[in-house]
Sequence to fold (166 residues):
Amino acid sequence: MSVCPFLLVDRLDWRTGEGIAAPVVAERTIYERNGKVILEVYPQPELVAGQYAGFIFSFKEPLSTFKDKSLIIQAIHAKTGAIESLSAKVIHTPSPGYEGLERYNLGIVLPIGGPWRLEVTLDGSFYADAIVQFHEPDWTESGRFFSGSYELVGTESRTGIIDVPF
Fold:
């Protein structure tokens, strides 16, 4: 298991009671090892928490590096440490139309906005990572409509919750 270097979060110093700021995490979609790019991640534009997002993971090493090995991709949220499993499979064949894993497609839905570290492990060992930023969704109140004598909140003819005043 590898250590995520940005998991320091906003907290209070137990000795002084003063706040300690979390570090700023910069987006990084290229991972290099020994000066050589081994992974590039191409996210779709405008990533929003709670919404589907398409990603292409472009692995630069030959298929023999991955063949018959377990490839696991996890997302780790920078501020909360929340972990989301994104993909886990044993690699047997290359990406369709390619000689290796140049185009490993993945659909992702992450629940919280902010920076996420996309960590790739190969047979249980750290391989590479990338950091992407998901925006918070716009929170607007759902519309209100009447169904008979009840006022509902939601989308008319689709979903509604009875609005109970307090």
